[in-house]
Amino acid sequence: MIHTTRYAKVPVTVISGFLGAGKTTLVNHLIEQRAIERIGIVVNEFGEVGIDGQLIVADEQALVEINNGCICCTVRVDLVAGIKELLARSRVSGTPVDRLIVETSGLADPAPVLQTFLADPDVRELVELESVVTLVDARHFPQQIQDEIAREQVAFADVVIVNKLDLVDDGERAAIEAEVKSLNPTATLFASTRSSVPADDLLGVKRFSLPAVLAIEPDLLDEDAEHDHEHDSSIQSYSIVEDRRLDPTRFNRWVNLLVQEEGTRLMRMKGVLNFVDEPRQFLFHSVHMLLEARPGRAWRRDEARRNCLVFIGRGIDPHRLRKSFAECLAA
Predict the structure, then answer these.
(1) pLDDT for 225
(2) Residues 209 and 315 in one domain
């Protein structure tokens, strides 16, 4: 007689939010707080080069990256494959994961993502959707909420985290929370700075409600139904990968000028950089005009020390961008 091992379903937390809302920072906070658990991470980025996977502190064997698309669209099949791969890999290693966190692209419509967990028979056998957490960027919320995707991310959430409170005043916060409640009256609200939220408030609490989701999207469980979702074709992603080292002074001058001149069109920038005479990675990101940079972990001896940058926005001129970036390279 052949005996098969049946595993308990793995709880899944989906983390969504518009570009630059603080999703990767939240994922790292949750991993650090739940160090005794083995958490599997599936991260999706809108672009050919993955940055977030390099920034997440998870074990490499517990991390699957999905690049060059959005898991609500063309690479949705990769979400299913990624979940299966991660769970199979962890079980073969003898250390099965205790839970999954799926970090979606900032341009992901949540409805098709949820449909994958609810309607795909293979995934349904393996995992159980625990909650959908959406971060909103308090600083840029008033302009981002004009985008249909940003509104849907809030509407489908079980939890909404109003992030970057340090960048708004009390009146602005109250207006944001009122707008969130108007879009989603049943969501649990938290507030944070730098995505710092207690893990116990988010993980291990089953908040997902299928009836609430079906009230928004009645045909969600019908895999043959056409879900009305198209990305804004004017939003493009462009990546730069460069092995040569950067001059920090030139780069600092270049990126600050770029934000000043193109910040309204550059919706999101992020990168992992290799500076001359610097043993650590250097991390930077921006949301429109807001730029932040800091040292990261030390480069490992066995890894390629290269610069990886991703730009997302409207009207990006790749040739001009690449040419101006080249002037930052060390002689």
Answers:
(1) 54
(2) no
Angle between helix 148-155 and helix 110-119 axes, rounded to 10 deg: 40
Pair type for strands 10-17 and 127-137: parallel
Confidence tier at 55 by pLDDT (50, 70, 90):
low
* Most confident region among 101-110, 149-158, 226-235, 264-273 by mean pLDDT: 149-158
Rounded to a whole number of angstroms, the distance between the first and last alpha carbons of the chain is 69
Instruction: Give the pair of three-digit tokens for residue 88.
Output: 């199979």
* Cα separation, 44 vs 30, whole angstroms: 18
**Whole-number Å distance between alpha carbons of 18 and 3:** 46
Has residue 130 got a pLDDT over 60?
yes
Name the token pair of 310. 């991703």
DSSP per-residue letters across 95-139: ---SEEEEE--TT--HHHHHHHHHH-HHHHHHEEEEEEEEEEETT
Mean pLDDT, range 221-225, rounded to an integer? 62
Paired with 134 in beta bridges are 16, 160
Domain that holds residue 21: 10-216
Strand 99-103 and strand 63-66: the pairing is: unpaired
Q: Residue 149: how many CB atoms within 10 A of its CB? A: 23
Q: Is the pLDDT of residue 162 over 90?
A: yes
Domain final residue, candidates 216, 244, 272? 216
User: Which of these, 102, 159, 156, 160, lies nearest to 126 by C-alpha position?
Assistant: 102
Among the candidates 181, 216, 251, a domain finishes at 216
Q: Average pLDDT, stretch 96-114?
A: 86
